[in-house]
Amino acid sequence: MAFIYDVPLNPSKVDVLLPWLPGQPWARGVSDPEQIAAYRFDDPAGEVGVETLLLRDGEILLQVPLAYRGEPVAELEEHLIGTIDHPVLGQRWVYDAAADPVYLAAIGDAVLTGAAQAEQFHEVDDEIVRIEPTLALEWSAGDHDRTPVLAGTDVVELVTPRAPVMLFRRLDPHSDVLGRDALLAVVGDLTVQLAAAG
Known about the structure:
The chain has helices at about 15, 100-115, and strands at about 1-5, 35-40, 50-55, 60-70, 80-85, 90-95, 120-125, 125-130, 135-140, 155-160, 165-170, 180-185, 190-195. The chain has about 200 residues and is mainly beta. The strands form three sheets. A five-stranded antiparallel β-sheet has the order 2-3-4-6-5. A five-stranded antiparallel β-sheet has the order 9-12-13-11-10, covered by helices on one side. The chain has a three-stranded mixed β-sheet with strand order 1-7-8, with no helix packed on it.
């Protein structure tokens, strides 16, 4: 479960990405991204915010997993995207979650066992209210005819505590789902594959 504070962030989540994205080969051609959806995973310890943004710039669709931490982590320094000032939580260090152990455990669970996204809540008139998700996560159990996929510019292999996972950074709504355990996102009439068993 994630409690979301309805407060302005400085900079916004998308704005903190703008100086970082041009250096990412999978974000080539992106100059003015907008967030179209997001999903979260729970951190069992309740310390790390784990959120993935789906960004669109024209026909380009990206998946950007983020880890929000309350203090800098030396081991993740090279994966630091920037910092955000949160009016309630204070300064948050924003990391590329593909290197964060909390995210790696969560994405491994989601791809290999079908673990669900975190439910989100916020406070409205002194009442805790569930926030409707902006996308639906679906799990596709694979078969034995496993389609090969290679790590590269747009697909990164993650080493999770369960097994390797292929994370799709640049999403293609026209591609077929791989014949293996896979995590899919449904946003309106759009279905995209987010990740697959390695």
